[in-house]
Amino acid sequence: MSDDPVVAIAGVTGAVGAEFIATLNRRGFRVGRLKALASRRSAGRTLSFRGETIVVEELNERSFDGVDIALFSAGSTVSKRFSPIAVEAGAVVIDNSSAFRMDPDVPLVIPEINGWRIREHKGIIAVPNCSAITALMPLWPIHRQNRIRRLIISTYQAASGAGAAAMEELVESTRASLAGQDYQRKVLPHPYAFNVFNHDTRVDPETGYNEEETKVIRETRKIFEDDRIAIGVTCVRVPVLRAHCEAITFECERPIGENEVREILSRAPGVRIVDDRAKNYFPMPIDASGQDDVLVGRIRKDLSDPAGHSISMFVAADQLLKGAALNAVQIAELLPQRAMA
Questions:
Q1: Which end of the chain has less neighbouring CB within 10 Å, N or C?
Q2: Strand locations in the chain, DSSP E?
Q3: Which positions are annotated as active-site residues?
Q4: In 3-state terms, what secondary structure has residue 256?
Q5: pLDDT digits (tens, 9 = 90+) for 181-238
Q6: Confidence band (pLDDT; 50, 70, 90) for 2?
Q7: pTM of the model
């Protein structure tokens, strides 16, 4: 019998679930047996993993018997119900939903930033919000050298963040628009083709911030372990399939120059500089899609800060990879040496 871990994927038929399988395969993650779990309507479907045909099973209370690692991407309601069951059965849960991110007993982990937090887990490890990961990957190495005291972030978020159905809605509504046909939207609150709108999460009537913006603020402070960082965020949905972009301006405690930022980021793991002024070539979703790295460019002085403490830049990252599946698999790769020994 193989000593390799039994891995379960909850939400295997979704957009992130498909990337879990592809990422495990691409990175050569050792799997003794794969359990594919989804809702009742998807049970019985089949998928291929390393030459084997895997039958999708309905997620239930007995799904995690004998499972070592459970990768969750089925929404916070499912995670809240089934993660404790998985832990009780002996699995380590790596959860992509928002269910446990702000729980003080649950590590919120980006391996390149705070992978050591994995050893503190009590059965559940949370993957941060995709927009937070995209921003913090390049910000963390700068923060380590020169503390960031203020952040202004505007996000341009792809359809994949709302799931496979939203991606399909973008494709189909665009096709209908080009053909001059009406399209009855099913997933998102506004027409998606050739449109940009406020992120499709609830807006707090008191603060005016939507839930996505609040997640970025709270998660940044938890991951950086710094509640003093002043953060303003605007999150919008754009008609792009799977890569998020963000315009970021950060203010450091000490003066900082663009060349210093480039030098720091050139050594940062998981970050790639794309910053060609002569060719007007900077991070784009078309280049970030399918890539593991977070792309960073438009690195320049913030001219509104005469003190020279601030830099503006533009980043792009694949929401389904580093924003979700890749980050989770990277956590799983650390488990044998840090959490399952």
A1: N
A2: 6-10, 33-38, 46-49, 52-55, 57-58, 69-72, 92-95, 124-126, 148-157, 197-198, 230-237, 243-252, 271-273, 294-301, 310-318
A3: 130, 244
A4: coil
A5: 999 999 999 999 999 999 999 999 999 999 999 999 999 999 999 999 999 999 999 9
A6: low
A7: 0.95
